[in-house]
Amino acid sequence: MARSCETCAIFGNDVTRTLLHPWEVPAKVWQRLHMDFAETTDGLKWLIVVDAKPKWPEVVQMKSTTAAQTLEKLKDIFITHGLPEQIVVDNGPQFIAKELKEYCIRRNIEVISIPLYHHNSNGEAERFVQTFKRGYEKGRKVGKL
């Protein structure tokens, strides 16, 4: 993005520069998952779950993004792949809800909430959200979705 381009400044991604400690690569697959939601221009909502080791994404369309619905979709994913040791989430109401926290505590899953206004701390999910949305919109444009 050109710093002097007003249009780029208005419509480009916010690239706030902060010093962050990078995540260590997990020792095994499905050890640490990064999660977020994506909303496409047609109004559909998607749960994005990215395994930090192989960068494997799981994408699930959501009828709603309530805590209960989110937990149900996560249970489906965990049935397929097993329970992770850690999940990294933003401070969205679905992820800080009591029911998700209790579910994770009972299953010994550590929930790591990223600091407010530091979305790059959940970069695995954030990057894939952008990749997914670009691919989805391209597919819609050429009539493949």
Summarize the structure in words:
This protein has 145 residues and is α/β, with parallel strands linked by helices. The chain has one domain: Nucleotidyltransferase, domain 5, CATH 3.30.420.10. It has 4 helices and 5 strands, in the order αβββαβαβα. InterPro entries: Integrase_cat-core (IPR001584), Retrovirus_Pol_polyprotein (IPR050951), RNaseH-like_sf (IPR012337), RNaseH_sf (IPR036397). One of its GO terms (molecular function) is nucleic acid binding. It holds the Pfam family rve.
Write the layout of secondary structure elements.
Blueprint: H1 6-11, E1 32-39, E2 45-51, E3 57-62, H2 67-81, E4 86-89, H3 98-106, E5 110-113, H4 123-141
Parallel strand pairs: 1-4, 4-5
Antiparallel strand pairs: 1-2, 2-3
Task: Provide a concise account of the structure shown.
This protein has 145 residues and is α/β, with parallel strands linked by helices.
What percentage of amino acids are in beta strands? 15-25%
Number of domains: 1
Please bin the fraction of helical residues: 25-40%
Count the DSSP helices. Answer: 4
InterPro entries: Integrase_cat-core, Retrovirus_Pol_polyprotein, RNaseH-like_sf, RNaseH_sf
Organism: Teladorsagia circumcincta
Domain Integrase catalytic: 22-145
Protein name: Integrase catalytic domain-containing protein
